[in-house]
Each structure stands twice: as C-alpha cells, then as structure tokens.
Design a protein that fits this description.
- Chain A: Keywords: Membrane, Transmembrane, Transmembrane helix.
- Chain A: InterPro entries: DUF979.
- Chain A: It comes from Collimonas pratensis.
- The complex is a heterodimer of chains A (328) and B (239).
- With 328 residues, chain A is mainly alpha-helical.
- Chain A has 3 domains: 78 residues; 87 residues, no CATH class; 144 residues, no CATH class.
- Chain A contains 14 helices and 3 strands.
- In chain A, strand 2 and strand 3 form a beta hairpin.
- In chain A, helix 1 packs antiparallel against helix 2 and helix 11 packs antiparallel against helix 12.
- The longest helix of chain B has 23 residues.
- Helices cover 74% and strands 0% of the residues of chain B.
- By secondary structure, chain B is mainly alpha-helical.
- Classes of the chains: A mainly alpha (328), B mainly alpha (239).
- At the A-B interface, helix 1, helix 2, helix 3, helix 4 and helix 5 of A face helix 2, helix 3, helix 4, helix 5 and helix 6 of B.
Chain lengths: 328, 239
C-alpha cells in the first residue's frame, strides 16, 4: 500500500532546510569560520537529502561505508573546533514589543498548533487511507504528524505575522548555530551503541560484574543493577542502550534466576533507574545540552545541575521500590 | 578473566576520559567507536559501514530541526514578550506555580501517550521558559543573568523529569516495547506490556512527590537570590 507522506520525504524536508542554512552561513561574513561551519552542515544535510539515493545507487554496504566516512569527517570538523556562530539581523526589542502588542495572544496560536496538530493527526490518521493510499507514514506516525504540524504552524505564522517561510528559516539559523554539534550527538551515540552491540560489550560487562558481586545479597544486587543502569546510561547517553547490557548482565542471571525476583517490576524500575542517569549526563544531549543552548544559558551544564538533586533522590527511591516490590 | 574478554569495554574509559579532558563529544564518540570495533577485530570497512548504517537509520532524532523555523519567526515578532506580559497580568502566577502546573500536565499527558505535546523546542523555549521568567520579572523587575539562567534551567528540567517518568506508563511507548521484546527473547513469556506500564506508576508517583517538594521551595529560593543580588549591588554602589 502506498503512502502520501513518508518518513523519507520528511528527511528531504529536513535536508532542504539544512541546505538553506548552509547557503545563509556561506554568505555570512560575520561568521569567523563560515566555510567549515557550512561544510559541517552541508555534510549533515547531505545524509538527509542524498542518503536514500546513495543506498539505491550504490547498494547498502557501499552507501553505508561512504556515509560512515562522512560521519567521521563531521566529527573531525567539530573536534578541531571549526564550528562557530554567525551574525544575525534581528528585529529590535522595540519592534518585537510593538508586534507583540499588535498580535496579542494570537501570537501563541502557531506555537500551540504544533502539539495540537501532532496529536490530532496521530490519533485521527492512524490507519486512515484514501483510495488505497495512506495519508501519513504508519510506521513513523508521530514524526509524520510532527512534520505536518510544523508546516501548518509556519503557514499560520506567515499569515499572522506577515513574515515569510524563508524568513522563518533565516530566523532559525540563530537557534541552529547555538545548538551546533549537539544536534548531531544523539545520532552519533546511536552509532556507538551499534558498535557496542556488534562487539558484544554486554558479555564483558557481565563477566566484570560476576567478579565483584556476591550472588546471595539480594539488596546489594538491586543496588548494583539500579546504580549500574544509571551509570551506564550516563556513559551511553541513553537508557535504551544501557538496558540490554545491564539487564542481561545482572538482572537475568542474578536477580531473576538466582533470587526469583518478579521480572515485570524488576525490568520496569530498572529502566527508570536508567532514566535517572539520563538526567545527569551531557551525553543525553537532546535533553540536557540542546535545551541549555536553546535557552541561551551561560553554563551549558546548568540544566544537569538543576536535575541532579531530583535524579539522585529518585534513584534511591527506585532502589527501595525495586527491593520491596520484586521480592514482595 | 582475560584481556581479550575486557577489550570490548575499551569504549567506556575513552568516553569518560574524553569528557574529563573536555574534548568535543562528537570526536570522543567516534574515537570510542573506532577503538571498540578495531579492538575486537572488526576491519575498518565493516566498522565504517556500521557507523553509516546506524547514523542513517537514526535520522529521526534530528526531526526537531523542523520546529525551529516557526519558533524563530514567532520570536522575532514578540512571542517571548507577549508570554511575559500575559503572565505578568495574572496576579497569582509565580515561577514555581507555573512549573508545578506544567509538571502535572506534562506527566499526565505523557502517561496517556501524548508525549509530543511538550518538549524543549516545542514548548519550553517559546512558552514555558518565558512565562516562568516573566512571573519572576513581574515581581522583582529585570533580573541578572545567573538568576535568569537558574529559572530557565528549571523550566527545561521540569519538562525532562515530567516526561521521563510519565511516558513509561503508556504501553505503546518505545521503552515498554523494548523491555517486552527483551524479556520474550530471553524466554520470559508470561508478561503483557500492560504489566510493565503498571509497574512504572510507583516511580512516577515518587518523581512527582520529589520534584514537587523541590518546586515548593523554588519561589523562596529565587527571592533569596534576588535579595542577595540587590544587597551586593547596594554595597557596590556605596563602596
């Protein structure tokens, strides 16, 4: 069955937006590293624009190899400090206040349309097809809905403010430059996770744990599983990557097989212990570093610092909850 | 335990050391990936192939870039200014109260599977942060950078914590499906995803209690910061 808006078309749209930003960066004489900054984003945008074409043209192994090289170049550009923010023409504070007064609360409308339309499309367009064609990609429904919502919001913003969609992209360059390399870190970590799986890192973790754990102390095992989930999540930036490693290494052999712990609450609370780690690591860039950039915080670790007290207390709570629930 | 068995772990100290020495995280991750792959005997071509495959297949992580243009446009036409004026007109709004309301809404909606109704780019930057900041500005006037940053960081933290410990209750969420698949693969077959969702509720309640308790003290802490700042400003003037 065909689909009207597929996830691949959404990637093209992301690619086009990134390429527009590349063009604007190239023309920005106020950016001291405009050529390398533009190259960084050009390579990134290429993966979105040409990724599928490469796979179709060269076949998967060769295309992935080429993209692998591109990714290494991207990380070298960032690693050598060749990214920098540009200069931006901004409307003055007085202009902003004037249009805020003119538009009143209507200005919230396009921003509110994003979540509203996303949710409506997700709920209403699930399994909806007209004449044998699905309207939205059914496998990635929320993302397809998010894409529709973003386009609607831009159109509404255009109508409301009089600023064009191209101006919208121009205004977003400030935000994208502020986020910088952190925008790409989540994808890089997915890559590292893939290598860890291929290298069977989980097995090694299990063997190390075996050396240090007394399999008779159920409370200690619970502590090690929860703290291990949090720590490994901090390293991997993602509880999903830590979960199979830690659960196979500690929960399955020692807690479920050895101590007859109830598996459902055990793995659920274990995963949530990992989430406590997500709150405490810069590796979880899209939750901790991107917001610091988006909010223009001087200290890019400020969000993490604010989260640590809650995260640590909640990790302790998870340890207690797990101990009393799985052995109840 | 032999050295060969430990080699797949080489990526972990590299990531930790990379951060300690403040190298760029993209570079650290790439080096950790290369070292791990090469140390277990993958050839460079296969390793690059794994890099490319995972990078291409996780492109969905970058779709938040689609939201930024409209946010940028609205901001240049006074979105933040309007958010702050509106909050200032509500007499009972304080920074902590707005955050508490947002936390409950976000966690509740997350539990119903509506996780995309909030988010750092969608709601925190354009709406929540300006409102929370606006409530404090309405009370104390313009604030210095450190106090402003603390308030904004609280807005970002509120979104993260509320959604993390709400979304797991919803059974269609990725984490629940991942755990379900993992258990089935390992021969534990008598568990429904619904059970996993239900066992997320105790932690969700704990998260609510812990973070609310912290937020009840936020307004007083902002007031102390402002007083300390005004005092230091005062001494500078007289000195």
């Amino acid at each position: 069955m065909k689909t009207l808006l597929t996830i691949n078309e959404i990637y093209y749209l992301v690619g086009i937006i990134v390429m527009l930003l590349v063009g604007m960066t190239l023309r920005d004489k106020g950016n001291p590293k405009r050529l390398t900054t533009a190259l960084f984003w050009f390579l990134f945008g290429s993966v979105f624009l040409f990724g599928d074409m490469l796979v179709a043209g060269l076949g998967k192994p060769m295309a992935y190899r080429v993209i692998g090289v591109v990714v290494v170049v991207i990380s070298l550009i960032a690693g050598c400090g060749l990214l920098s923010a540009g200069s931006y023409l901004q409307r003055s504070a007085a202009d902003r206040q004037a249009s805020a007064n003119r538009l009143g609360n209507w200005i919230f409308l396009p921003a509110l349309l994003i979540p509203l339309i996303t949710v409506l499309c997700t709920v209403l367009l699930k399994n909806v097809a007209i004449g044998g064609v699905y309207l939205l990609d059914q496998k990635q429904l929320t993302l397809a809905a998010l894409c529709v919502a973003s386009v609607c919001a831009i159109l509404a913003g255009w109508k409301l403010t009089g600023g064009t969609p191209l101006q919208a992209v121009r205004e977003s360059r400030r935000l994208v430059d502020a986020i910088g390399w952190a925008a790409i870190l989540p994808q890089m970590l997915a890559m590292l996770g893939g290598v860890f799986v291929a290298a069977q890192t989980g097995k090694s973790v299990q063997e190390v744990v075996t050396l240090f754990v007394n399999p008779d102390s159920s409370f200690l095992l619970v502590v090690i599983y929860c703290v291990g989930m949090a720590l490994f999540t901090m390293i991997m930036g993602n509880a999903f990557a830590a979960f199979p490693v830690m659960t196979a290494g500690i929960a399955l052999p020692f807690l479920i097989a050895g101590q007859h712990a109830d598996p459902a609450p055990l793995v659920t609370i274990g995963m949530l212990a990992g989430y406590c780690g997500t709150l405490m690591t810069p590796m979880a860039a899209n939750y901790n570093i991107v917001p610091a950039a988006l909010l223009e915080l001087k200290d890019k670790y400020k969000v993490i610092k604010i989260q640590i007290p809650t995260a640590v207390t909640l990790l302790a709570a998870n340890i207690l909850l797990m101990y009393f629930i799985v052995f109840r | 335990m032999t050295v060969t068995e430990l080699l797949p772990l080489i990526g972990i100290p590299i990531v930790v050391a990379g951060f300690a020495f403040k190298f760029n995280p993209l570079l650290v991750v790439t080096v950790a990936g290369l070292a791990t792959g090469l140390s277990v005997g993958m050839d460079l071509g296969t390793l690059l192939e794994t890099f490319g495959e995972k990078f291409v297949n996780s492109r969905s992580l970058a779709t938040f870039l689609l939201i930024l243009p409209v946010i940028g446009l609205l901001e240049s036409y006074g979105l933040k200014e309007r958010a702050q004026d509106w909050i200032a007109s509500l007499a009972n709004a304080t920074s902590a109260r707005i955050l508490m309301l947002y936390f409950v809404l976000r966690q509740g909606l997350g539990a119903l599977g509506l996780t995309y109704i909030g988010g750092q780019a969608q709601t925190v930057r354009p709406l929540l942060a300006p409102m929370v900041e606006g409530a404090a500005v309405a009370k104390y006037g313009e604030l210095p950078l450190p106090i402003r940053d603390k308030i904004r960081a609280h807005a970002a933290a509120c979104d993260n914590i509320a959604v993390f410990f709400g979304e797991d209750i919803f059974i269609a969420f990725g984490a629940v499906l991942l755990m379900d698949a993992f258990l089935k693969e390992n021969g534990i077959t008598n568990i429904e995803p619904l059970h996993l969702g239900l066992w997320a509720i105790p932690t969700a309640i704990a998260a609510l209690i812990i973070h609310m308790a912290r937020l009840t003290r936020l307004d007083a802490s902002i007031r102390r910061d402002v007083e300390a700042w005004k005092k230091s400003e005062g001494t500078e003037v007289t000195a």
